[in-house]
TrEMBL record:
Keywords: Hydrolase. This is Alkaline-phosphatase-like protein. Belongs to the sulfatase family. InterPro entries: Alkaline_phosphatase_core_sf, Sulfatase, Sulfatase_N. Pfam families: Sulfatase. Residues 2-87 form the Sulfatase N-terminal domain. Gene3D superfamilies: Alkaline Phosphatase, subunit A.
């Protein structure tokens, strides 16, 4: 899977470079959830939960106007991706967004400053078999799961 994604991304890089667009291209890698991968003796996200290994997903954003090597470790949510993409693409928002762009926070991190983004995240968990959905509220200062 990783090799396939690497190959496909390489195709995108080569094409954008060939078109002279690479220096103005922003790329994003993200996921909608984590996996246990052995944490708690489990290997997949079932049963659903709100442990750190499921809800703390990395996102990689790079290119164009962004400083290389910047790591921003504050909390964000998936709903923040749309406003972030719109702002990076200089596209006007035509309707209200539930998320908040990460662009200002990323630029602040490039200057060595921490611009807190959110104090809380909403996490929805549940399964089709259970026919129930639980909503949790995670706080930024919550300790990581063992």
């Amino acid at each position: 899977m990783v090799m396939f994604i690497d190959w496909q991304f390489g195709r995108i890089v080569n094409k954008t470079k060939g078109l002279g667009l690479w220096d103005q291209t922003v790329t994003m890698f993200f996921t909608d959830h984590g996996e246990y991968l052995g944490d708690y003796g489990l290997i997949e996200k079932r049963p659903s939960g709100v442990s750190d290994s499921l809800v703390h997903e990395p996102i990689i954003i790079g290119g164009a106007c962004l400083t290389k090597g910047v790591v921003y470790e504050e909390m964000g949510e998936m709903v923040d991706l749309v406003p972030t993409v719109l702002l990076l693409g200089t596209i006007a928002e035509t309707y209200a967004q539930c998320g908040v762009s990460l662009v200002d926070a990323i630029h602040a991190a490039a200057r060595g400053k921490v611009l807190p983004h959110k104090n809380y995240n909403f996490i929805e968990v549940g399964g089709a078999a259970a026919r129930t959905v639980a909503v949790s509220l995670l706080h930024q200062s919550q300790p990581a799961a063992p």
